[in-house]
């Protein structure tokens, strides 16, 4: 691999495209290979052993594509499998979303709310990393398992979602948090609703933005930035391709990708 090799990004499904979007924004010249494990999404309700196995297979696929580094866009994989993957694949720099988001959150406030899938919240990965950067920060974590299915169904403006959001987020509102980490790939899609329900004054951390900055810093420091003059090529792979996935993918990425997604067997 060389500096002109692509950046590999994987997620349990298509939500990670919100992270890919931030990476493309900050690093427009980079080639990107995105893998969404749509055949096995969601990871959020699964056990750590299974999440590790799936994440390992995703990593192996990206390494076979000769990527120069890998970004684990999925908060659930980051929380449960990133240490395991970093130990197992030492030759490839691996980035995950929890650490950079935790670092950013501690620079913003001291009473930090974290929302995510069941597996992310149960792992306590965000608390651990937040308390690495700030001993005094108080962390209030909350699993919001119903957000992902609503968003995957494209129900982002429905009354049902609004009710669920109110039900979940009132618990954080009454704790008077000053900062909120949107600890799941899907949540930036409903970022405005989340901010409204928690309180618009709360500072929001989007882990996709945090990891994009980390990757940018790493590539520039190590002289690994792609030097091509045109915008980078983007290749999308999924483990199950349906018409609906394409529509959802376009919603997450914010651009048309019909006909550009390939199906793979891991
Ligand atoms: N990508 C997952 C995350 O960020 C959400 C979807 C899932 O449960 O797999 O945690």
Please describe what this structure looks like.
This protein folds into two domains: 7-96 and 209-263, Rossmann fold (3-Layer(aba) Sandwich); 99-207, Rossmann fold (3-Layer(aba) Sandwich). 45% of the residues lie in helices and 17% in strands. It has helices at residues 17-26, 48-64, 75-88, 98-106, 118-123, 125-133, 147-152, 159-173, 191-198, 207-221, 243-253; strands spanning 7-11, 32-36, 69-72, 94-96, 111-116, 138-143, 179-183, 203-205, 234-238, 261-263. The strands form two sheets. It has a six-stranded parallel beta sheet with strand order 4-3-1-2-9-10, with helices on both faces. The chain starts with 6 loop residues before the first strand and ends with a strand. The chain binds D-glutamic acid.
Element layout with pairings:
Layout: E1 7-11, H1 17-26, E2 32-36, H2 48-64, E3 69-72, H3 75-88, E4 94-96, H4 98-106, E5 111-116, H5 118-123, H6 125-133, E6 138-143, H7 147-152, H8 159-173, E7 179-183, H9 191-198, E8 203-205, H10 207-221, E9 234-238, H11 243-253, E10 261-263
Parallel strand pairs: 1-2, 1-3, 2-9, 3-4, 5-6, 5-7, 7-8, 9-10
This protein binds D-glutamic acid.
D-glutamic acid (DGL) is lined by residues 11-13, 15, 41-44, 74-76, 116-117, 120, 148, 184-186.
């Amino acid at each position: 691999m060389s500096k002109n090799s692509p950046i590999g990004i994987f997620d349990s499904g298509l939500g990670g495209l919100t992270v890919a979007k931030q990476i493309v924004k900050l690093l427009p010249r980079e080639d990107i290979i995105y893998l969404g494990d749509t055949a096995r999404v969601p990871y959020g309700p699964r056990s750590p052993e299974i999440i590790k196995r799936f994440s390992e297979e995703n990593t192996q696929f990206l390494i076979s594509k000769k990527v120069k580094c890998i970004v684990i866009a999925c908060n659930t994989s980051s929380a449960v499998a990133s240490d395991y993957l970093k130990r197992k694949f030492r030759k490839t720099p691996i980035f995950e979303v929890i650490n950079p988001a935790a670092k950013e959150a501690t620079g913003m406030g001291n009473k930090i709310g974290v929302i995510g899938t069941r597996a992310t919240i149960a792992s306590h990965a965000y608390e651990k990393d937040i308390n690495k950067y700030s001993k005094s920060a108080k962390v209030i974590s909350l699993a919001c398992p119903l957000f992902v299915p609503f968003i995957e169904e494209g129900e982002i403006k429905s009354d049902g979602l609004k009710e669920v959001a109110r039900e979940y987020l009132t618990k954080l509102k009454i704790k008077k948090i000053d900062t909120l980490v949107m600890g799941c790939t899907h949540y930036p899609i409903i970022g405005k609703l989340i901010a409204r329900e928690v309180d618009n004054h709360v500072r929001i951390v989007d882990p996709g933005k945090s990891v994009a900055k980390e990757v940018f810093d790493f590539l520039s420091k190590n002289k690994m930035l792609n030097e091509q003059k045109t915008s980078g090529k983007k290749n999308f792979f999924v483990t199950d391709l349906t018409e609906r996935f394409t529509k959802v993918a376009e919603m997450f990425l914010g651009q048309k990708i019909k006909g550009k997604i390939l199906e793979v067997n891991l």
